[in-house]
Amino acid sequence: MAVSEDEANAVFLGLLRVQKLLVAAKHSAPRLEDGVDVTAYPVLFVVAGAGTVRISDVATTLHNDVSTVSRQVSSLVTSGLLEKSADPSDGRAWVVSLTDHGHDAVGRIQASRAAWFQGLLSEWDGPETTQFVDRLRELGDALDANLRARGAPTPPMPFDSRHQTQKED
């Protein structure tokens, strides 16, 4: 069954509201790492999922400008969460990986965010949550396919359906 124009607009407006509220919430979110801006957290998550990765690949994965990601990486290196080294396959490029402190920080950040969302979703039951996550993945996959059809690079993110995000039973 096709989605009506009104339904499509309702989904779009609902997502826009959630996006704006998440942006507003990040300004009041607790700082789990001194000196680390929450806008750099996605960089940490991509590096955590990739292991060792080129800065340009992090930027592509996040659909961000390389200069923006490079500044975030520099800040994360200064904070001791990432280490930066020359790419062994191309000495002109840089790769980054998590330090031990970075691994610990990612764990704390994810635990904190999970606890926050557990509170937000306290009235939901397991099947509702599973359905919601499945639908979010489907929407993400549809957006990804649309971007690919337009020729935009869309490498797997550590939180999309092309990346293993659930523990095996």
From TrEMBL:
Domain HTH marR-type, chain residue ranges per copy: 8-141
Keyword entries, A-Z: DNA-binding, Transcription, Transcription regulation
Biased composition (Basic and acidic residues): 160-169
Entry keyword Nuclease: no
A Pfam family the protein falls into: MarR_2
Keyword Transcription annotated: yes
Gene3D superfamilies: Winged helix-like DNA-binding domain superfamily/Winged helix DNA-binding domain (1.10.10.10)
Region Disordered, annotated ranges: 148-169
Transmembrane feature ranges: none
Protein known as: HTH marR-type domain-containing protein
Taxonomic source organism: Terrabacter ginsenosidimutans
Origin organism lineage: Bacteria, Bacillati, Actinomycetota, Actinomycetes, Micrococcales
